[in-house]
Amino acid sequence: MTESKHLKPHQAAFLLVGLMTLVHIVLAFNTELGGDEAHYALYGLMPDWSYFDHPPMVGWLQIIPMWLFPTDWGARIVPISLYIILNYLLYQITVRLFAQNEQACSDSKTIWTGFASLLLLNATLMFPLMGMGQLPDNPLMVVVLAMVWLVWEMLKTEIPSTKQWLLLGCLVGLAALSKYTSITIVVSLLLVMMVEKRWYWLTQKGLWLAILIALVITAPLLYWNAIHDWASFLYQLHHGTHNPDWRIVRFLRSQAAQFIVYTPLLFILGWWMMLKVRNYRSPATRLLLLFAVPVFVLFAWGSGREESLPHWPALAWLLLIPVVIDWLWQRRAKLGVKIVIGLQLALSLVLTVVMHSFLFTPWIPFEDHKNPIQGEYGWKQAAATAKEIQAELSTDKTPLPLFVSNWSYASHLTWYVRPQPVYVTTARQTQFEFWFGKAKAGMDGILVVPHYEKIPPLTNQPNHFERCDLVKKLPIRANDSIIVSYYFYRCSNYLQ
């Protein structure tokens, strides 16, 4: 965070983003898709008005790449592109919202806080990973950053222009098409009107026009749910509330994961920024906190009932980055701040190099079946083996259908055996029933089971087969250890 006489901040930002993009491209061509990545790539191959487990944006963005390049690397074109846009928007928002603070604390005209925000963003473990793998959060974060920028400009004037209202309506609609938790944006906008004393906006035609536009853009999502008995809405409501009791241990485990993947620096200072009342006095900080806090409240409440995955609250941590950077920038001359930042950057550099190199090739030795990437590894080979077994066991022109026990496994397997269907042996509804229908009673098939599932599989129960016989075991090795083993069963008489 020191100023350079030979390198301008936007040039440094360009070099940083260029380096991360290069890393993402190299990994895109050398790593197989994760479960979520494969799932949303299948969205693009089978486009619809919406989908069971998520709104349609994450799939719509994959339609053209999957039409042109239906490959592992092709599925990563969109997230890599969105991450570049995300870096640009974060840089601009940091500079524009905190320009006054920056000029007041700098003896030169060079402003480096925009670059510092990108440095912190890319120093985390989570955001660079999301920058390569498609998730619903990716388009949501881009849309919300654009919305924050727009609202900041709207607050500079008493009466926003019609163009600004129209753009706001479009962004709210796009956010709704990206992820259901974007409902927090409505709360944030209401908080902005209340805190900034802009209730008179409710009397302006532009606001109601924006609401109308948002509803029109959201119509495909509403239409799909209407013709499918509101299946997606009901799934999301159950997804976050199926545990009747709220437990602090679930909340703490979720927070511990975020402490690691978002770095201790961002985690600790981010919570401090939210909890310190005085931070809400600054217009720029207040605006970002009004968008971040509702996200934290939603997932803090939800994680007590079901542990939150680390990427779920990514939007909130993203919005806190400029706030944290501005706080650090104003104290950058203090020795303690310099030491903390130096240690954080050194640790982040080591972890980033280790993480990305490990994704490229699992070079760190682990005991057999203890590798942390076992759930995302070897599905391409498992799919090839499953097709070989199909060819050996099928007695007619119709191959035995493939089965797995989990929707994530189905995403992996379907991606590599497409266009043939894969069925999920579960009573719970998944997206695969909408694509391929539910497995029928009496069906025979080949069940693919990774070692971390129950071996041998359950039989003679509803939503399982009456009998399963082991056909083959496929251990997949790297660096003299078994990362994952897949078991292939010839099963008969599926029971409903």
Write a concise keyword list for the protein shown above.
496 residues, alpha/beta, five-stranded mixed β-sheet, 8% strand
Radius of gyration: 25 Å
Spell the H/E element sequence.
HHHHHHHHHHHHHHHHHHHEHEHEEE
Number of helices in the DSSP assignment: 21
Morphology: globular
* Tally of domains: 2
> How far apart, in Å, are the first and last alpha carbons?
62 Å
Mean pLDDT score: 92
The strand count comes to 5
Strand content: 5-15%
Backbone structural class:
alpha/beta
Question: Major sheet: order of its strands?
Answer: 2-1-3-5-4
- Main sheet properties: 5 strands, mixed
Helix content: 55-70%
Low-confidence stretches: 104-109
List the helices and strands and how they pair.
Layout: H1 9-28, H2 35-45, H3 57-60, H4 63-68, H5 77-97, H6 99-105, H7 113-123, H8 126-130, H9 137-154, H10 162-178, H11 183-195, H12 205-227, H13 231-241, H14 248-261, H15 264-275, H16 283-303, H17 314-329, H18 335-360, H19 379-393, E1 402-404, H20 407-417, E2 422-424, H21 431-436, E3 445-450, E4 464-478, E5 481-495
Helix pairs in contact: 1-5, 1-7, 2-20, 5-7, 5-9, 7-17, 9-10, 9-17, 10-12, 11-16, 14-15, 15-17, 16-17, 19-20
Q: What's this entry about, in short?
A:
The protein is an alpha/beta fold.
Report on the architecture of this protein.
It is a single chain. The chain is 58% helix and 8% strand. It is α/β, with parallel strands linked by helices and 496 residues long. It has 2 domains: 9-360, no CATH class; 374-495. A 5-stranded mixed β-sheet has the order 2-1-3-5-4. The longest helix is centred in the last third of the chain and has 26 residues, at 335-360.
